[in-house]
């Protein structure tokens, strides 16, 4: 009983009626990609047969995703989609006797590993930001990708803590845990933030504030508050990714703002930064049970000048 993907996936999507439209679309896409991969395995040339959806097939596919550099979060979502598909085949079709995803455990350590983006993911993200065309998106992205800022660093960044000229720039950031740090900026980050602030200043001049008390405090404001909240930063990135093409979406749909910061750290290491220099720039905080990188950084007394000299070595 060989089956056509499209017809079966349509029936599967209809059976997911209780879930949101976004979830139905994501599950359908994940299952289709898994079936496409399965069709390339030995013995599957003639099409999909329910008996092909075995635990071995699911485990092998998840391993394939891991080798492709996809995150554990993404693998977990694919597993959930395949589990729902197997349940559909069991309860709606009567074609399977047990769910092949049952008992498959994804490695916990993968969930904690800092994310390093692939060259294709970096290209897709930068392309989507450029096509977006707004200086606000360019500045938000640059602070994560080119400056390794935390979401809280961006959300609480004050205008008074930005120091930018035509050739250099630095910020005072570090709202988290009440610890601030001063970081020099790559040209990509300096230029993006400077262009955004210039536009905001121009708009403010065109529509002057009624009272001094209304003067802008935070770099990024929202329509409802005087600053863009941490949740607002995450919402911005989700909205930005929804403008991606289908091929780009498959690469970047699960990339978070935290991943931009992690990838900056990886690129800094590739550029020759020491662990201590990365820790200094990113403002890591010592916690019990974490690697001793933060403790080491305190004793090596890395300077701001030492780190700034290596900024230009980081590639995109």
Walk me through what this model shows.
By secondary structure, this protein is mostly helical. The protein has 2 domains: 5-112, Tyrosine recombinase, N-terminal domain (DNA polymerase, domain 1); 119-313, Intergrase catalytic core (hpI Integrase, Chain A, Orthogonal Bundle). Helices cover 55% and strands 4% of the residues. A 3-stranded antiparallel beta sheet has the order 1-2-3. Strand 1 (162-164) and strand 2 (169-173) form a beta hairpin. Helix 1 (5-15) runs antiparallel to helix 2, helix 2 crosses helix 4 and helix 13 (275-282) crosses helix 14. The longest helix has 22 residues, at 72-93. The termini are far apart. The model is unreliable at 287-300 (pLDDT under 50).
Protein traits:
316 residues; mainly alpha; DNA polymerase, domain 1; hpI Integrase, Chain A; 2 domains; 3 strands; elongated
Structural class: mainly alpha
**Main beta sheet:** 3 strands, antiparallel
Corresponding CATH architecture of the largest domain? Orthogonal Bundle
The proportion of residues in beta strands is under 5%
Poorly predicted residue ranges: 287-300
Helix content: 55-70%
Give a short summary of the structure.
55% of the residues lie in helices and 4% in strands. It is mainly α and 316 residues long.
Write the layout of secondary structure elements.
Layout: H1 5-15, H2 21-39, H3 55-67, H4 72-93, H5 108-112, H6 119-132, H7 135-145, H8 151-155, E1 162-164, E2 169-173, E3 181-184, H9 187-206, H10 230-241, H11 246-252, H12 257-270, H13 275-282, H14 293-300, H15 304-308
Helix pairs in contact: 1-2, 2-4, 3-4, 6-11, 7-9, 13-14
